[in-house]
């Protein structure tokens, strides 16, 4: 396993609670849209065993052509040890990244794509939208639906309704309105539905999608393949 130590190049305050850490990109480090990585703080590997309290599984919110690795995360006032330390880091400090992989690349199957997320889950989808804007071959319409009760909606420069109507976006403030919107989107029986959020959020979305007749192969989750049955198999019996 290769561990890349890199420096924080910039810290962006997206909202009161959400920060994006932009990391210098090592020369041989590559990734694709929808990628996640293991993001670790100094000291995580100093003992006989890795200190898992200093490691988090994070989505990369940028694309390689941006020349920086973006990690976007919510840091609440009351938070874990990991995020308490992360909050104190400054430009120039070192962090580590390793085990980078994409479970949710943009599928080019001539179908409409629906991006369903909660809050900072948009960080996973930002690269998919940018990749689509760069090259829309074999992708129909993209629609993003995000629920965030904070009303501080993220990445509104990217998640907006484009003038050519190939990409649309909607933000809602509560779960009730959100799931009504999901039901409407699921009237597209051929669409591809990408879902990102907590495990509870995933299961709730899957239940709604299956109730509307969406098949398991149409649902994309940011989970390793061996984990997918835990989420999709129970829903199949609804």
Architecture blueprint of SSEs:
Blueprint: E1 4-13, E2 18-24, E3 35-41, E4 55-59, E5 68-74, H1 81-88, E6 94-102, E7 111-118, H2 122-134, E8 139-147, E9 167-172, H3 175-185, E10 192-196, H4 199-211, E11 219-221, H5 228-236
Parallel strand pairs: 7-8, 7-10, 8-9, 10-11
Antiparallel strand pairs: 1-2, 1-6, 2-5, 3-4, 3-6
Helix pairs in contact: 4-5
Write a structural description.
This protein is 23% helix and 32% strand. It is α/β, with parallel strands linked by helices and 238 residues long. The protein has two domains: 4-102, Beta Barrel (Elongation Factor Tu (Ef-tu), domain 3), CATH 2.40.30.10; 111-236, Rossmann fold, CATH 3.40.50.80. The strands form two sheets. A six-stranded antiparallel sheet has the order 4-3-6-1-2-5. The protein has a five-stranded parallel sheet with strand order 9-8-7-10-11, sandwiched between helices. Helix 4 links the parallel strand 10 and strand 11 (219-221). This is Dihydropteridine reductase. It comes from Sporosarcina oncorhynchi. InterPro entries: FNR_nucleotide-bd (IPR039261), Riboflavin_synthase-like_b-brl (IPR017938).
């Amino acid at each position: 396993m290769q561990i890349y130590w890199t420096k924080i190049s910039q810290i962006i305050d997206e909202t009161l609670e959400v920060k994006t850490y932009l990391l210098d990109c090592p020369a041989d480090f590559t990734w694709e849209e929808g990628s996640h990585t293991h993001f670790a703080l100094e000291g995580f590997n100093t003992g006989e065993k890795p200190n898992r309290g200093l490691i988090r599984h994070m989505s990369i919110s940028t694309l390689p052509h941006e020349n920086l690795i973006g990690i976007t995360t919510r840091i609440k006032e009351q938070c874990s040890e990991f995020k308490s330390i992360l909050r104190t880091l400054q430009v120039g400090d070192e962090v580590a990244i390793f085990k980078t992989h994409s479970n949710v690349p943009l599928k080019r199957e001539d179908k409409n794509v629906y991006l369903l997320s909660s809050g900072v889950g948009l960080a996973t989808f930002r690269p998919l939208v940018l990749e689509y804007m760069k090259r829309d071959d074999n992708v129909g319409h993209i629609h993003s639906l995000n629920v965030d009760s904070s009303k501080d909606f993220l990445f509104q420069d990217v998640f907006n309704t484009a003038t050519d109507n190939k990409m649309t976006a909607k933000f809602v403030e509560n779960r009730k309105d959100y799931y009504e919107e999901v039901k409407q989107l699921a009237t597209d029986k051929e669409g591809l539905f990408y879902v990102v959020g907590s495990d509870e959020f995933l299961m709730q979305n899957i239940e709604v999608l299956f109730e509307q007749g969406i098949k398991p192969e149409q649902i994309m989750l940011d989970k390793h393949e061996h984990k997918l049955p835990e989420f999709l198999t129970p829903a199949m019996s609804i």
